[in-house]
Amino acid sequence: MSDFKPRIVAFVCNWCTYAGADLTGTSRMKYSPQVTIIRFPCTGRIDFMLLLKAFANGADGIIVSGCHPNDCHYSSGNFHARRRWIVFRALLDFLGIDVRRVQFSWVSAAEGAKWAQLVNATSESIRQLGPFSGFHRLRGLGVE
């Protein structure tokens, strides 16, 4: 299990978290390289079926991150994402997916260190959970 390197997909907003991740890189802070960043205009635009699709395609863990509350470029997108997250947690429970595999967070453009800490902490917690093997079951449910 110690050789396991989790595949993490991060769905981030363009205005805050993506800029924060960029700051992490330009500041030469190190973080787990097993994360794939997918940039969206806003976390409110993220369809949570995409998260299930990421699991179906082999992701072991997922990060959803956007602007802090009341800092959204589109004024309320992060509030929409937070409400969807509450519903999505219930769906994860229903599907039998451990909710610890999905991390929801706020990271601003000035928080490069927080982004590195978030990725490293998520990578470590997913490594302890082990590989996600339920993606075969998701494909059987038509999530492709």
Q: Whole-Å distance between the termini? A: 28 Å
- The strand line-up of the biggest sheet is 2-1-3-4
Counting helices, strands and paired strands, the structural category is: alpha/beta
Number of helices: 5
Helix content: 40-55%
What is the overall shape? globular
**For the report, how would you describe the main beta sheet?**
4 strands, parallel
Q: Roughly what fraction of the amino acids lie in strands?
A: 15-25%
Radius of gyration (CA) equals 15 Å
Oligomer type: single chain
What are the segments in which pLDDT stays under 50 over at least 5 consecutive residues?
none
H/E series, N to C? EHEHEHEHH
Count of individual beta strands: 4
Give an overview of the whole structure:
This protein has five helices and four strands; from the N terminus they run βαβαβαβαα. The chain is of the alpha/beta class. It is globular, with a radius of gyration of 15 Å. The mean pLDDT is 91.
